[in-house]
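If I may wish for something, please sit down with the protein I am sending here and say whether tokens and residues agree:
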Amino acid sequence: MGEKLLEVKNLSTYFYTDEGVVYALDDVSFDLDRGEALGIVGESGSGKSVTALSIIRLVQSPPGKIVAGEVLLDGDNLLTKSKAEMRHIRGEKISMIFQEPMTALNPVFTVGHQIMESILIHQHKTKKEAREQAIEMLRLVGIPAPEKRVDDYPHQMSGGMRQRVMIAIALCCNPQLLICDEPTTALDVTIQAQILELIRDIRERLGTSVILITHDLGVVAQVTDKVIIMYAGKVMEYGTVRQIFTDPLHPYTAALMRSIPVIGKQTERLNVIRGMVPSLSKRPDGCLFHPRCDEACELCRTVRPDLINLPDGRQVRCHKYTDKWEEKSHD
């Protein structure tokens, strides 16, 4: 086992709306070692992005509120920090790459200005030194002719280039943790591969820990060491990439795996998971996945399962791995 960088313990984030309380994140726990990459996977509405925003304290309040838990970075609880302290931690210790670079970047400032801004806030450097570092960061992320492109505005760049600029901004202060929120969603397949290779290369060269949020299990297989499968604000399964891909335990994980197209397999239709993620303000009783699960029994419909620690280090939230399930199967 490596040295722990991040520990998330029993983290819960709710949104208080006119329609009721939205349980966007409910009792989520995981940890991340230094230099390790963790994938967070799930359908839209599963709580992936809220997890990231909760870690870096960017949940909009109101209506959102972190109601419970701890987020320990190097043993220091970020949830007890003031807003001023968090502004120094963001960018310097934790950085985040957002989904859509065109909306994340400011259209009225050059990309060089936006990289320099972070450097000037967190490091004692002159504007000239910050500009030189900005050019070096653009070179690091593979942007050609960085001396010229540093003065470009976001609209003068392609989607792939803008995403590289976002990565440059995130890395300019050499953070310990890089959170990537679906960094390849809006990009074509060729550019996706380049961005993923860049993230993997940066992790190896700089020793940066990475949290990769995605709905694409193929992306997770390429980049990460461990995987969290999330559903309706809860962790359903947690294990290494090899464990998840070779032997998925939770019926939801198995259903996600079956929905991936396989080259050479001729089938009339892809497997689909029936139904939709439930409303997080009107959650069903019992297991949150039971309305869509082919293996659900009466126990699943009435009793909400706990997250179970297995001997091989994995975690799974399913009655199949409890004594109650064994009792039911013998009835």
Summary: The domain at 4-93+175-262+270-330 is CATH 3.40.50.300 (Rossmann fold).
